[in-house]
Amino acid sequence: MRHPYQSTSPSTPTLDTAFSLDFLARLAEEDETLTAGEADLAGPWKCEPLPGRPGAVAVLRVWEELDRGDLPEAIFWHSETALLLSLVLPLLGREPLFALSNKEEADGFAVEAVYGDQGSQVAGWLRRHEPRLIEALHLLEALLRSPVALAALVEAAGPGAIEQIGRILARQQRA
Fold first, then answer.
1. Cα angle 126-35-64, degrees, rounded to a multiple of 5
2. CB within 8 Å of 24: residues ≥ 6 apart
3. Is 69 within 8 Å of 15 (Cβ atoms)?
4. pLDDT digits over 83-94, tens only?
5. Longest dimension (CA), the chain
6. Does 28 map to a domain?
7. Distance of alpha carbon 148 from alpha carbon 55, whole angstroms
8. d(CA 17, CA 13)
9. Residue 56 lies in a domain
10. Is the pTM of this model over 0.85?
11. Does some domain include residue 160?
């Protein structure tokens, strides 16, 4: 991926940075660390209106600014979709929390989960070999571990859903 500081066009504005362009150019030539993918998606992210495109919403890192030449990670017509992307980006960047075995056992395909210091352990089995289910489990588990992401998800659901969530939780507390 070409970064703004790697541009060959002299008309491209240089972004503010505490590092020299020579230093950044040398870094671009080195191999990435194992955690680079997670760091690249970690954010935190923000959503803001895209100037000149009424109704469009840009997704940027909180320290990025459109008027300084930063390119948005995404642009959406619906703010709810932009908000969803802003919360899913750091979740996707995390190391997978679940893995699906390719070998079928008596109970199905083993699902392994990573439990901190305990390492990887069998958490259950799926009847079918369906990797998309494992990806969904990863996203949901990562979502549960992030109160900020949970709040953004509820916000994206809108006022009607928020009201219903409150009613559901209140009734569950009484049960």
1. 110
2. 3, 5, 6, 17
3. yes
4. 999 988 988 888
5. 66
6. no
7. 25
8. 12
9. no
10. no
11. no
